[in-house]
Design a protein that fits this description.
This protein has a domain of about 40 residues. It has two helices and no strands. Helix 1 crosses helix 2. The chain is elongated and about 70 Å long. By secondary structure, it is an all-alpha fold. Helices cover about 50% and strands about 0% of the residues.
Length: about 60
């Protein structure tokens, strides 16, 4: 018994990857520091975590 299936698979897109070993760490650290200073501090742990993660992501995407 043989079965033949005619299917098409779309090619998956690969996201751009950050090369951490080649990163300009001093520049990234200063961007994070500046972003954290300019953003309002939250009252809850979740708000503080969201603020930190947002600053880190913004610094890496800049």
């Amino acid at each position: 018994m043989e079965a033949a299936l005619d299917i098409s698979v779309s090619a998956s897109k690969q996201e751009e990857r950050v090369m951490f070993k080649n990163a300009l760490w001093k520049e990234i650290n200063s961007r994070i520091t500046d972003l954290l200073r300019s953003r309002k501090v939250g009252n809850t742990v979740q708000q503080k975590t969201d603020r930190l993660m947002s600053a880190v992501l913004d610094a890496f995407q800049a």
